[in-house]
Design goal:
The protein has helices at residues 3-42, 45-69, 74-87, 89-105, 111-123, 128-145, 154-166, 195-208, 225-236, 249-262, 279-296, 314-326, 345-353, 374-382, and strands at residues 183-188, 213-217, 239-241, 267-271, 303-309, 331-335, 357-361, 369-371. By secondary structure, the protein is α/β, with parallel strands linked by helices. The protein is elongated. The chain has a domain at 3-70. Strand 2 (213-217), helix 9 and strand 3 form a beta-alpha-beta unit. Helix 8 runs parallel beside helix 9 (225-236) and helix 10 runs parallel beside helix 11. Strands 3-2-4-1-5-6-7-8 form an eight-stranded mixed sheet, with helices on both faces.
Length: 386
């Protein structure tokens, strides 16, 4: 069984588990009713009352056992599955429908089939280098396993694409929390990628997890950036610190970190300017901010998250490479993935810059920012292929 089949069965298994739970509950109630009727015929009124109490207790106990078997994470997991499915609709209808049409077009695998497949993958923003590696692997597998029917290749295509993504690495979407004092998250990215909005949404998620969160407006150059972050802090109910437009970003960061330490904040989220057109100035600014952070809190920042707009395609990859030259990036947040039919950019990012995608934006609401999960991504993107 291939990777995609296992994931598909896993998600289908959740639905079967729900049905089984419902059937078990109904059976418990039915059995309880039957026992009560038998008791009425054979016992006195007093005995009937006693048996009803016993039966009721058994039902409660059995239902309690059923509830214990249900994971406390099951509800948010199902919600996340729906967000992935809905958010990847555009990519699924574009990229995946092209793969399905290709399978229908050819009755046998030949060089023309491979050429068209290669074009589809490149157009999906997977990246030329990744596509070339993938095509070599696929051709080798077709030859080795003597595969002739394109239909038999559908699942293999999915498997090989994500084998390339995983590449025997341990992938994690977890935030690296500081065990001793505030955790510092530094956000970088060019203007217009949804950086401030992402910070606001992630602040809401962390607050929902019980974290005490402080937003720091380190982007003092873009007009309205400070005000926008302050509005998000009010919207999601977390604290904020900022200064007037044009102020020294490092001084804002310093004040924010001092406040975080004095008032025992769990997480400090720092916005920064995104003037990539002048890399020298931006590098100096980020170096200064990093020095301030490290002096205030050893081993911080604990995460430097690069925000990339998925709709910009290969330009987003170029941004990642440019930022990688001037600072250490620990994770990527891919925004607006619901707005592109080119869902392959997730693969390209991994291949081109080898930085894990930690969060993806799949819509406008706060709930639509989700931790990146490779299995949910596979299912949400390719479920129509099987």
């Amino acid at each position: 069984m291939g990777l995609f089949s296992k994931i598909k069965n896993m998600f289908k298994g959740e639905n079967k588990s729900q049905e089984k739970e419902l059937e078990t509950k109904e059976k418990v109630i039915e059995e309880g009713g039957e026992k009560q009727e038998e008791t009425k015929e054979l016992s006195s009124a007093k005995e009937v009352e006693h048996q009803e109490e016993v039966s009721s207790e058994k039902e409660i106990k059995k239902e309690s056992e059923i509830k214990k078997d249900t994971s406390p994470n099951e509800v948010p997991l199902k919600r996340a599955n729906k967000v992935y499915e809905k958010g990847l609709t555009k990519s699924r209808k574009g990229f995946v429908s092209n793969l399905i049409n290709l399978t229908s077009k050819y009755h046998r695998i030949n060089e023309e089939y491979f050429e068209e497949l290669e074009e589809i993958l490149i157009m999906a923003d997977i990246g030329v280098n990744t596509v070339m590696e993938f095509m070599d692997r696929l051709r080798s597998r077709v030859q080795k396993e003597k595969i002739e029917d394109p239909e038999a290749l559908k699942e293999i295509i999915v498997d090989e694409l994500f084998i390339i993504y995983v590449d025997d690495n341990i992938l994690t979407n977890k935030i690296n929390y500081n065990p001793d004092g505030p955790t510092v998250l530094l956000f970088i990215g060019v203007n217009g990628v949804g950086k401030t909005t992402t910070i606001g949404k992630l602040a809401w998620k962390l607050k929902e997890e019980g974290k005490k969160v402080l937003l720091v407006a380190g982007d003092t150059f873009r007009a309205g950036a400070t005000k926008q972050l302050e509005e998000w802090s009010e919207k999601v109910g977390v604290s904020f610190i900022g200064k007037a437009e044009g102020a020294d970003p490092a001084s804002v960061v310093y004040d924010g970190l001092e406040k975080a330490k004095q008032e025992n904040y769990d997480v400090v989220m720092i916005d920064t300017a995104g003037r990539l057109q002048n890399k020298t100035n931006l590098m100096r600014e980020l170096e200064k901010i990093n020095r301030v952070i490290q002096n205030a809190i050893p081993n911080a920042p604990h995460e430097t998250l690069l925000i990339i707009d998925a709709t910009t395609g290969q330009n987003g990859i170029s941004q990642a490479k440019s930022f990688q030259e001037i600072t250490n990036i620990t994770g990527i947040v891919l925004t607006k993935l619901d707005g592109t039919a080119k869902g392959g950019i997730v693969l390209a990012i991994k291949e081109e810059v080898n930085i894990p995608v930690k969060y993806i934006g799949l819509g406008e609401t706060k709930e639509d920012l989700q931790p990146f999960d490779i299995e949910q991504y596979i299912y949400g993107l390719f479920k129509d292929m099987m």
